[in-house]
Amino acid sequence: SQKIEQNSEALNIQEGKTATLTCNYTNYSPAYLQWYRQDPGRGPVFLLLIRENEKEKRKERLKVTFDTTLKQSLFHITASQPADSATYLCALPLGGGYNKLIFGAGTRLAVHP
Amino acid sequence: NAGVTQTPKFQVLKTGQSMTLQCAQDMNHEYMSWYRQDPGMGLRLIHYSVGAGITDQGEVPNGYNVSRSTTEDFPLRLLSAAPSQTSVYFCASRAGDRVGGYTFGSGTRLTVV
User: Fold this and answer.
1) Is B27 on the interface with A (CB under 8 A)?
2) A102 part of contact set with chain B, CB < 8 Å
3) Among B74, B25, B28, residue whose Cα is nearest residue B54
């Protein structure tokens, strides 16, 4: 069955460094992949979408890569700030209609001053 | 523009009781979904809808019913609550004319005792 894996251990980094989070998937070939941010007690917030024919996408300090051969996406936050501390979720569509979006369990990022 | 509104925010049920979690969006989005989020398991898709009158099952549909009589509303019904349904429930929506991110509500925290 299809599976999405994100590092369950929290990522702790110093302010100003680049944070890199990983999303791996198995047993299918999604047409796109999404990343969301979730703060405690709140719903996820959409950040970026990258399509299978795009190797890289950027938005301000965020960069996402999508390697369909490795079945992996990397999510980078450059010049990280304490305000970037949150849980980051990756999500992929399941099925040909792309209406069923399934999520990884998320990785918690803590940026320390 | 309220986005996605979920009510109630908190609810305690006794085993065997039924209830309806409400979800409304004012963005004229075609696609709507219900997720539950449990610690360490991420978001799991319960049911989804691609438009008024059309619904389908997600990853964990058992014990839940949905209907979509209007574009705006997508209620989730628990027929006979069980302790295993203790969770945080999120409703989400997105426009149907393009692939894009979902807008999530703020969630309903449900406890079944």
Assistant:
1) no
2) yes
3) B74
> Closest Cα partner for B74 from B94, B98, B48, B105?
B48
* Cα angle B39-A42-A20, degrees, rounded to a multiple of 5: 70
Q: Which residue, chain included where needed, has tokens 């209907």? A: B67
Is residue A98 predicted with pLDDT exceeding 70?
no
Q: Give the model's pLDDT for residue B1.
A: 66
For B62-76, what is each residue's pLDDT tens digit? 999 999 999 999 999
Q: How far is B89 from chain A (nearest CA, A)?
A: 9
